[in-house]
Specification:
The structure holds 2 protein chains of 2 kinds.
Chain A: H1 2-11, H2 18-23, H3 26-57
Chain B: H1 2-21, H2 37-64, H3 67-98, H4 107-128, H5 132-160, H6 181-211
Helix pairs in contact in B: 1-6, 2-3, 2-5, 2-6, 3-4, 3-5, 3-6, 4-5
Classes of the chains: A mainly alpha, B mainly alpha.
Chain lengths: 58, 212
């Protein structure tokens, strides 16, 4: 029974997003998440700058 | 600190590109969601790392009595718990589409939820004591015990029983069945990158705390 189950796992077609990648559309997702990531980094950097300037004023 | 920030930017950029584009093993049920490994698991690694730092500083405060250790330990715990909540939320969403439900009575899930509740207790305890000297000491001692409670809840107890969550039920965390070399290629940089991000945010928060 167990063996049959594993055979089933091996033989079945597994749906992956290969088509997406061949169309090149996955790059859209990559760019979008990179935009978010970099804006977050920029945000952190700006907060750091603000803290530094407050420190100088004190 | 500067190198940590630069490293964080590089490693997370790599994670968010390679994480989508590199080949992953084709597994039934999981399908493409296996990529969530690069985001969900580093949340927990970062949480554990920051909470370890937090309990270290609590221990140092109790033994040395320097105020800086206390604020550091509070700060690391705060950021660590944020990452823990993110880990819980991402895990719930992932579970919905692989296990079919947001929450099961799995020892790993319940353990991590209880672990986070213990840390909520730390914040409530710390903010409820008005006396400054007592506040630091009592909450630091609680924090050390909170971390020593978290380890059995997340790592030991789930391995003693059966669990749906990979890396449990008597198996070590990183065995050959759970992860192959393709996944490791992105997974380890992702973990390091997110730990660096956690350190960066804690550094910012600590600067704000010092200004107050």
């Amino acid at each position: 029974m167990n063996f049959l189950f594993f055979l089933f796992l091996i033989l079945q077609e597994v749906a992956m997003a290969d088509a997406m990648r061949s169309n090149g559309k996955i790059y859209v997702v990559v760019v979008i998440s990179l935009i978010i990531l970099f804006s977050l980094f920029l945000y952190l950097y700006r907060i750091e700058k603000q803290i530094k300037s407050i420190k100088k004023d004190k | 600190m500067k190198y940590i920030k630069i490293g964080c930017v590089f490693l997370l950029t790599y994670t968010f590109t390679a994480g989508y584009l590199f080949d992953v093993p084709a597994l039934p049920i999981l399908n493409e969601t296996v990529r969530a490994l690069y985001l969900h698991v580093p949340m927990w690694f970062t949480m554990i790392f920051l909470l370890l730092l937090s309990s270290y500083h609590s221990y140092m405060f109790v033994s040395k009595g320097e105020e800086l250790h206390e604020s550091k330990s509070y700060n690391y715990a705060h950021v660590g718990v944020y990452f823990g909540i993110l880990g819980l939320l991402t895990g719930m969403f992932w579970a919905k589409y692989t296990w079919g439900t947001y929450w099961t009575n799995d020892p790993k899930l319940n353990g991590s939820a209880i672990g986070l509740l213990i840390y909520f207790g730390y914040f409530i305890l710390r903010s409820s004591i008005e006396d400054e000297s007592k506040k630091g000491k009592i909450s630091s001692v609680y924090n050390v015990f909170a971390f020593s409670m978290l380890i059995p809840l997340i790592f030991i107890l789930p391995r003693l029983t059966d669990s749906l969550h990979p890396g449990n039920g008597g198996n070590p965390g990183f065995n050959v069945y759970d992860m192959n070399s393709q996944l490791r290629l992105v997974f380890y940089p992702a973990v390091t990158g997110f730990i660096f991000l956690g350190l960066w945010i804690s550094d910012l928060r600590l600067k704000v705390l010092k200004l107050k």
